[in-house]
Specification:
The complex is a heterodimer of chains A (417) and B (257).
Chain A (H helix, E strand, L loop, with lengths): L2 H31 L6 H11 L4 H8 L3 E4 L6 H6 L3 E4 L8 H4 L9 H12 L1 H5 L5 E5 L3 H4 L1 H7 L8 E4 L8 H22 L6 H26 L5 H9 L6 H11 L11 E6 L8 H8 L3 E5 L19 H14 L10 H12 L5 E7 L3 H16 L3 E7 L6 H16 L1
Parallel strand pairs in A: 1-2, 1-3, 3-4, 5-6, 5-7, 7-8
Helix pairs in contact in A: 1-2, 2-12, 2-13, 10-15, 11-13, 14-18
Chain B lengths: L2 E7 L3 E8 L2 E9 L4 H15 L7 E7 L11 E2 L2 H12 L4 E7 L4 E6 L5 E6 L8 H11 L6 H6 L12 H13 L4 H24 L5 E5 L6 H11 L3 E2 L7 H8 L3
Parallel strand pairs in B: 1-4, 4-5, 6-9, 9-10
Antiparallel strand pairs in B: 1-2, 2-3, 6-7, 7-8
Helix pairs in contact in B: 2-8, 3-5, 6-7
Bound molecules: iron/sulfur cluster.
Chain lengths: 417, 257
């Protein structure tokens, strides 16, 4: 096969996968819009997810250049104050893995495999605009190696790539000092990227209060979920769309959405823990609903953990503000890549004892080692205390839906015995 | 009057029991094939005519298994883990605390509390390693009927160390062992032990009962060679009830009460 024929073949494969990618997305959008609990207030979020996640679309919507972000530990307020829109990279489509899988290890994070496949589709190139830069906190091994994997997959994104070295011992003072240095390095990187030598202290404080307000409104949505009023599917759609628009507009939309949830779900409540879930692969949430289980709490980084919590500060100097941000994004993060992460486990065990839910469903993506490993500790701690736990390992495939459903149905019976 | 039907629509076989006063009056299984509902209705007809009943004698039908939702004639459905738990609890007269179920395509370990309720359960992932399908494949490659596996493995002194319970890898491993002239008896004994080890791993320390009995059920549990290997790996007694492939279908009828 000569080069032209090879290019032509690759082009046809990409076109085929792109068409299926669009079908997969359209199908989930259709599922969401045809639900009886769909309302005009939710249309905004569904439309954000439907409109696509290429930098041109997001930048046109927000009026800001878009920086790709690999994990949530980089303070979003810093991007905002530099006039940038951070966009968390994720892969939700099952079909896009088919492009990247031949170049990648057989067992790896399917979420990133899907993200890499999507980048290979080059939606950014098609729209003529690339991410301005890439920022990657060094969380799990897959994220640490993402730049190499992008290269291996022949991804055309070649903008500046900045890593934040994440100290994996949260409770050490030295780690917090290290992380503050990293936040300063991020500030310098963004400053060079935008050509803005300085940021105004007041501007940073304003960005911080915007995100504070957003967190406050989001917390109200969490409160409604706790009492069974917000189905996890909608909660995920809302939180998944967080990076797709300007924070103020998104917050206003969440405020309006608060009024739409009025029907209480009487199914047994569960805590959903583990690997993240991203649109359009909402398989697990559909199955939970089908099995008659209600998610009243979760700790997924694609859901309740999109915010690190409230940022408090007394010192209003620039250093004081940056320190407060650094501390919150490091200390508040419950990612299992941290070595000292007892708080995450306690955050699940404590509400279980208060009867806020009946059991834990732990979702593990095959190849997501941090969550897989942490599930062992959690399982043993929960079961030692007589609490119910089930781990469901899955991949980006719909083939295992039936066996997952069987387990969830049996788990429901065990919870309601 | 007073008859109930339990249908277990599994991945490799459809099992049916006709029950009166919680006693199995009739049972049969057929291989799963397209048109599961029609196959199941044929079984129902067979039971009715062979037992000299009228259709109106059947009060209720319960369905379980992967195909349960296809059975529109069933007034009630129940998941197969709960059905298995209820069935074994009743049939073992409350003695069972752990069930090891080997299905056509999955392995399950179910822990029960003293009331027969599910305390915990584990299932293998989506691959067919160590399941009924694995044994069927092995029988085909060894050109030996599955029913003789138990007898044949008794003839071997030492089991052969087999590395894989994966259907695909085991095939090439068995083929190369046969080519080297290794007796089939040793290979079969090795297969039983490798499946038994897989079950032991799934069981883990946490799911191994501190009290009460362990029961093996599902189609492959009728293989005495596997039972022996399992007891050997677990260093515990494992019990098998008569007709162990019908426990789940029977348990489905109990969920009608
Ligand atoms: S933590 Fe898990 S889901 Fe997240 S990027 Fe790493 S492997 Fe993937």
């Amino acid at each position: 096969m000569n080069n032209t024929q090879q290019d032509d073949r690759e082009g046809r494969i990409k076109k085929k996968i792109f068409d299926r990618f669009e079908d997969e997305t359209a199908q989930e959008i259709k599922n969401l819009k045809s639900r009886p609990d769909f309302s005009p207030e939710l249309e905004y979020f569904v439309d954000l997810l439907a409109a696509g996640r290429d930098p041109a679309t997001i930048s046109e919507r927000t009026g800001r250049p878009v920086v790709a972000l690999m994990c949530l530990q980089a303070p979003l307020e810093l991007f905002h104050v530099f006039g940038l829109q951070p966009f968390k990279i994720f892969g939700g489509a099952m079909v896009s893995q088919r492009l990247s899988a031949p170049q990648l290890p057989a067992i790896m994070c399917p979420m990133l495999r899907s993200a890499l496949g999507e980048l290979q589709l080059d939606l950014a190139g098609q729209k003529g605009q690339r991410f301005l830069a890439w920022v990657a906190p060094t969380t799990c091994d897959w994220v640490v190696k993402i730049q190499d994997m992008m290269e291996v997959c022949g991804i055309k994104e070649k903008p500046p790539f900045h890593r934040l070295e994440l100290p994996h011992m949260k409770d050490r003072d030295e780690s917090q000092e290290r992380w503050l240095e990293e936040v300063y390095l991020l500030k310098n990187f963004l400053s060079q990227l935008t050509g803005q030598k300085k940021i105004k202290r007041q501007a940073l404080a304003n960005s911080m209060s915007l995100y504070q307000k957003s967190w406050h409104v989001f917390s109200k949505l969490i409160d409604l979920k706790r009492i069974g009023l917000v189905p996890e599917l909608w909660f995920m759609v809302i939180s998944n769309s967080f990076f797709f628009d300007d924070v103020e507009k998104w917050t206003t939309a969440v405020e309006k959405a608060l009024l739409t949830f009025k029907t209480k779900n009487e199914s047994p409540d569960i805590f959903l823990a583990g690997s993240p879930i991203f649109f359009p692969n909402l398989k697990m949430l559909h199955l939970l609903e089908e099995a008659g289980l209600n998610v009243s709490m979760d700790d997924l980084c694609s859901s309740e953990r999109i915010f690190p919590g409230a940022v408090y500060f007394d010192d209003v100097s620039e250093h004081g503000l940056l320190k407060a941000l650094a501390q919150r994004y490091h200390q508040g993060c419950l990612c299992p890549t941290f070595a000292d992460n007892d708080r995450r486990i306690n955050n699940i065990i404590a509400p279980a004892h208060k009867d806020l839910f009946k059991g834990v469903v732990f979702h593990v993506l095959k190849g997501c080692h941090p969550f897989d490993l942490e599930s062992l500790t959690l399982e043993s701690r929960l079961k030692d205390q007589g609490l119910k736990f089930i781990k469901l390992e899955t991949d980006y495939t719909s083939e295992d839906s039936q066996t997952l459903l069987t387990r969830l149905e049996a788990y429901r019976s065990a919870l309601t015995n | 009057m007073g008859y109930k039907i339990g249908l277990d629509l599994g991945s490799t076989a459809i099992k049916m029991v006709l029950v009166k006063n919680n006693e199995i009056a009739w049972s049969r299984k057929v291989p799963t094939a397209p048109g599961q509902e029609a196959l199941a209705l044929e079984l129902v007809k067979g039971a009715v005519s062979e037992c000299g009943l009228k259709e109106s004698d059947i009060d209720q039908i319960a369905a379980t298994g992967y195909g349960k939702k296809l059975m529109s004639a069933a007034g009630h459905t129940v998941d197969e883990i709960s059905a298995n738990a209820q069935g074994l609890h009743w049939l073992s007269e409350g003695r069972c605390r752990t069930i090891i179920n080997i299905g056509g395509q999955d392995l399950k370990v179910i822990n029960l509390n003293e009331n027969g309720r599910i305390a915990d359960f584990k299932m293998n992932d989506k691959c067919a390693a160590g399941t009924g399908r694995f044994f069927e494949q092995a029988a085909r490659i060894l050109d030996t009927p599955l029913e003789s596996f138990g007898e044949m493995s008794k003839l071997a002194d030492e089991p052969l160390e087999l590395n894989s319970t994966c259907v695909v890898f085991a095939e090439s491993e068995i083929v190369s062992l046969l080519a080297k002239g290794v007796p089939k008896e040793r290979i079969i004994k090795g297969l039983h032990h490798s499946v038994a080890r897989r079950i032991t791993h799934l069981l883990g320390n946490r799911n191994t009962p501190k009290s009460g009995d362990i029961y093996l059920d599902g189609g492959p549990s009728q293989n005495p060679g596997l039972l022996e290997a399992l007891e050997d790996e677990l260093l515990m007694e494992v019990k098998v009830l008569p007709n162990p492939q019908f426990t789940v279908a029977f348990g489905a009828t109990l969920s009608l009460n």
